[in-house]
Design goal:
With 274 residues, the protein is of the alpha/beta class. The chain contains nine helices and nine strands. It folds into two domains: 128 residues, no CATH class; 130 residues, Glutaredoxin. The longest helix has 26 residues. The chain is elongated.
Length: 274
């Protein structure tokens, strides 16, 4: 099951939509139950959300501080998807607990809002995981490489593999390419595969030369077959496979050095190389 919703040129993350919907419905329920105190309840629900988000981001930045210290302003760029969910949830619950202890009159509407958010989020998570990445494997595709050879994607099984779907016209793709190049050089135990979507060998070669990028495993997918097979049309999309060729993680959007490091650390260990 794809984790995105495509509306014309717009591609939306389903987990992000689920989170937004959970917040909006929780806020609505809390206001309805609160009656005359609706505005105050709404403020506390929003503050709880903000406390959780800020704590989740700060915890992630601290965990990967070496990467962020190289470019301190990148700590503010949340587009890289760097969050520590457990810390964020814990901080949000702690803030909610303080509010409930101090404002007993708000307990009923806040509990109603929290129950609504938790229920909707759990239902959405179960629905998305029902057809999730566990049943998706490396596509059985053979694609031309920039050197003219033909490479089967399945041939990368046997090691952890990172497949990046990209194009030269995509600004986020351009920004994350140096990060992926550095990781490819630093992690020879992991296959990094760059599957260009819809462009010619000449376009790709010219872009790589112009950008000074030296990448291995650059493949050409003129018809976007890999994106279709994997259920992802948005660019950039980075897919993480275990050594058995099973999809275990997906990043829709730009990766930073820190968010890439997190996902690589979470990959199951490789078995013997093929």
């Amino acid at each position: 099951m794809t984790q995105t919703l495509t509306l014309g040129p717009l591609v939306l993350s389903l987990p992000l939509l689920a989170g937004a919907a959970s917040y909006l419905f929780a806020n609505h329920v809390g206001r309805r139950v609160a009656g005359t105190q609706a505005a105050e309840v709404e403020r506390h629900i929003l503050r709880t959300l903000l406390v959780g988000l800020v704590a989740a981001r700060l915890a992630f930045v601290v965990q990967f501080h070496d990467a962020y210290l190289k470019a301190p302003l990148s700590m503010l760029d949340i587009r890289d998807g760097g969050w520590h969910a457990a810390i964020g949830i814990g901080a949000a619950l702690a803030y909610a607990g303080v509010v409930l202890a101090r404002r007993s009159a708000l307990r009923k509407p806040l509990f109603a809002a929290a129950g609504t958010a938790a229920g909707l989020w759990l239902a959405a998570t179960l629905a998305l995981s029902a057809g999730g990445s566990g049943d998706v494997r490396m596509p059985q595709l053979a694609l031309p490489a920039t050197d003219g050879t033909t490479v089967r994607l399945a041939s990368f099984e046997g090691r952890q593999t990172v497949v990046n779907l990209w194009a030269t016209w995509c600004p986020p793709c351009q920004r994350e390419m140096p990060v992926l190049q550095k990781a490819q050089a630093a992690r020879p135990d992991v296959h990094f595969v760059f599957v260009n979507q819809g462009e010619s060998a000449q376009q790709v070669a010219a872009y790589l030369a112009r950008s000074g990028l030296q990448l291995r495993n650059v493949l050409l997918d003129a018809k976007g077959d890999a994106g279709t097979a994997l259920g992802h049309r948005a660019l950039p999309t980075t897919l993480f496979f275990d050594a058995e060729g099973r999809l275990v993680d997906t990043r829709l959007g730009e990766l930073s050095e820190a968010s890439l490091a997190e996902r690589l650390a979470n990959l199951p260990p490789s078995g013997p190389k093929k």
